Amino acid sequence: MSLPLAPKPAIRRFHQARWDEPVIFELSTPGERGVLVPAVEPGVRDAVGDVLAELPAGLRRAAPPALPEMAQMRVLKHYLRLSQENLGADLNVDIGQGTCTMKYSPKINDQLVATPQLTAMHPLQDPADAQGVLEIVWRLERMLAEISGMDEVSLQTQGGSAAIWANIAMIRAYHEANGEGEQRREVITTIFSHPSNAAAAKAAGYEVVTIHPDADGYPDLAALKAALSPRTAAIMVTNPEDTGIYNPAITEWVDAAHAVGALASYDQANANGILGITRARDAGFDVCHFNLHKTFSTPHGCGGPGSGANAVSAALAPFLPGPRIVRIGEGDDARFEVQGAGPQSIGTVAPFFGVVPNLVRAYAWIMALGAEGLLAAAETAVLNNNYLLAKVLEIPGASAPYASGRRRIEQVRYSWQELYEETGITSEEIGVRMSDFGMHYWTSHHPYVVPQPFTLEPTESYSKAELDEYVAALAEVAREARETPEIVRTAPHRQSVHHTHHDDLDDPARWAVTWRAYLRKYPEVAARLAGEPESTADASAA
Amino acid sequence: MTEPSAAFVHPYLPNSAPEVRREMLDAVGAASVDEFYADVPEALRLGRPLELPAPLLAEQDLARHVRGLLAKNRSTEDRLSFLGHGTYRHYVPAVVDEVINRSEFLTAYAGEPYEDHGRFQALFQYQSLMAELLAMDVVNVPTYDGYQATATALAMAGRLTGRRRVLVVSDVLPEKHSKVHDFVRVHLELELVPTAGGTADVAAAAARLGDDVAAIWVETPSATGAVEAALPALATAAHAAGALLVVGTDPIGYGVLTPPAEQGADVVCGDIQSLGLHQWFGGAHGGFIAVADDEALVMELPSRLFGLASTDVPGEVGFGDVAYERTSFARREEGKEWVGTAAALWGIAAGVYLALMGPAGMAELGELLLARTRYAQQRLAAVPGVRLGDDALHLREFTVDVSGTGRSAAELVAALRAEGIEPGIVVGEELLLVCVTELTGQADIDRLATCLAAACGTPSDRQIPQEQRA
């Protein structure tokens, strides 16, 4: 062995951590404590007596909850090991979760929100004591109004789907206020809009009409016009759609909806490529929403909290959720007050002011970039996507159905159909194998309109070298699918656990959603954990 | 379109350097990024810069600006706070923040059960730890907050029974009622059954039951902190009518209090903010829904449910989604409500919290909260003119009626704020909602009582006859 060392392999020999960490209940040691609680003060006890003994019959818990008993460092170590068995966006080239805009969440923003001047704020404190946080939320509302072209913004919802719910709830209230609540019973969406548009509309009581694209993947204006009627309450669409195709006839879509008295609701989950390029209101939309955890960089937190922003035209503003933050006065004399929801408001959709730490993060992200930076972020995301598109199409067996020969905006829904027909390897199997290279990969929402789908969205956060690395891993897995398909079919090989069996998860007799349910359904395991001899369990099973 | 951003190089934009940009454009045969927007009609192009504040490009300038704004805040560390009403000031152990601030958890999203085994296990454990506290076999991956959890729980009851009426037998936070009402109003009608002495009027509720009632909705602790002592009677009455008992609750007291599942509740739901989450100006809420391991109930849950699964290696434990076909991810509008990004990280936090607290910690905390609540009730009720809003058992929160002091609740709040105290929330002209936790000790409660007595000081000009104050 001698220097110089060999260069690193072109494709990482990644291996996920494997700590074999037991489920936490197995780590319990009677008597250990993780944190201590202050004792009841003698003066308090003298005054109130034994509060437990005085509880009304039936209210005193018979046996303490069977939580684990663990010393502090053991709890820490257990969860840090689990964290190592998790692949956050900070660690991988997280471009494999198209539609979700897995961009960089700047670390400074995490530091900024960790101050007690935010964490220890109660939402019903004297507004005079909350001027800083109220001002940030108010400013963020105004920024998003400018970015969307809308008049008013609410930041109360905690995620994109929650914001979609608020959109349809406002639309419902608007039609009811105009005496058309009974008449307008349908919502129209497209198959390449997020499923929550359809699902939230259904939850709000509407019948859902789903429009499929034309032969080239563009939203079908003729199909929309055929579906619109005086029964239509709204169109709820994404643009660009989850294919990355921008609907060039979007104004005609909105105009057609308005022509029958329907409203137009814009799911801007895919806004990352059009910031500063084009705006919802300028296309005529009445309401829209952003996902601050996508477009505006707040971290995804393993699946939330995110944050939603609902932006509306003046006509819909009376229906926004409350409370609202209002600015009184101008300049240095300005102060911020809290107003309750107005008489036509849909009311409260979530506690207080929304996911405040993420509102502060989103504000900081916009302030770090400004107008020029937002445009640069959008253009870079789109450049990255079209670069990635060209590279992926160089892999034999990969294709990008629809809009052939045209550019895409910020993401693409690709297909492995050719590779599947050649090898029998599915897109899901390729995705699992990609994890062996330290890469996350996602197929598509259901149903799979594009056969053997995968959806990549590179955002602005990843360098050219990282995009090349991801494509190289994809090409390697495609090569394996042809040459050594068993490796792909039996993946994963380098993960914390091996291929899992879904039949355990779909059978009510077998599924175990909690540890207590598991021990009840599998008494042999409970017996083993309780230290009983194997034969006991065998006997009971026999 | 011009390219104003061509030379805009920023730390968040690795491919913004002109050379790389050129190289990538060349690789795809594009003259400029403008070509990628060919489908965006000219008429829709903004054609001007967004009107946003000038950026703070250097990180230090950004930090100074945001910290400067936040420095205008005076937090509950600067004020002595007795504020609750849905957001609670509990101690957050350092290990909780350490875990949820790990990049691996904070920045992860939707990985498969392989590369994200840790996320699946951490959330399965959250479900399991909550299940022990609540004595129920199924708990969801958190939904948005307790408001949503309750709205969904009631909607589930409506779907299961095919009925429309819901009897609301507890005092509910007005904001929570607003959310639940708008969420379910197409499917359900909420009927208020006035409380008696702070808790459910069982006879009145029973009288209104019928075969068109989907659920009785109980809140315990209620909006005023009253603990419902009649859950078994309410459960019996509901079940006799074929209705479900839906119990909205805060789990903080179940180290010592009997969990609703052991008193006949069919669905138990609420918020986890009390379990290891900072107040964050009301911005750190997560919702739980717990049911028995009954297929009919489980299949009505919209949220994800993580379960144990076997793997190709005998004996090895993996995880996955239980009954995924319920969800809107699988079936769009044919799924149950919808599922999306909600509050998973807060679920991990609550799991770490419960693991740290253990059975002894939760029991000690429950006793401490009951004792301090009772003590605060005694101290405030001893102030001349102040009396308790009701005689029910309370946990953490209670109301005081200040009508005997000659001053309104708002006047007293203003007077105590001048002393650096947030004494509670005005929930009626003469009603104040006061909250104590493990962070408000005996000395803090004594100070509140002393300052309240001083503020209630009844000089002659304050003794306004009742009829003139209306």
UniProtKB/TrEMBL annotation, chain A:
The keyword Isomerase does not apply. The keyword Oxidoreductase applies. It catalyses: N(6)-[(R)-lipoyl]-L-lysyl-[glycine-cleavage complex H protein] + glycine + H(+) = N(6)-[(R)-S(8)-aminomethyldihydrolipoyl]-L-lysyl-[glycine-cleavage complex H protein] + CO2. GO terms for molecular function: glycine dehydrogenase (decarboxylating) activity. Keywords: Oxidoreductase, Pyridoxal phosphate. Residues 377-485 form the Glycine dehydrogenase C-terminal domain. It comes from the Bacteria. Pfam families: Aminotran_5 (PF00266), GcvP2_C (PF21478). Residues 173-322 form the Aminotransferase class V domain. Its EC number is 1.4.4.2. NCBIfam families: PRK04366.1. The glycine cleavage system catalyzes the degradation of glycine. The P protein binds the alpha-amino group of glycine through its pyridoxal phosphate cofactor; CO(2) is released and the remaining methylamine moiety is then transferred to the lipoamide cofactor of the H protein. This is glycine dehydrogenase (aminomethyl-transferring). It comes from Agromyces soli. The gene is gcvPB.
UniProtKB/TrEMBL annotation, chain B:
InterPro entries: GcvPA (IPR023010), GDC-P_N (IPR049315), PyrdxlP-dep_Trfase (IPR015424), PyrdxlP-dep_Trfase_major (IPR015421), PyrdxlP-dep_Trfase_small (IPR015422). It is an enzyme of class 1 (oxidoreductase). Residues 12-450 form the Glycine cleavage system P-protein N-terminal domain. It comes from the Bacteria. GO terms for molecular function: glycine dehydrogenase (decarboxylating) activity. PANTHER family: GLYCINE CLEAVAGE SYSTEM P-PROTEIN, GLYCINE DEHYDROGENASE (DECARBOXYLATING). This is Aminomethyl-transferring glycine dehydrogenase subunit GcvPA. It comes from Agromyces soli. The gene is gcvPA.
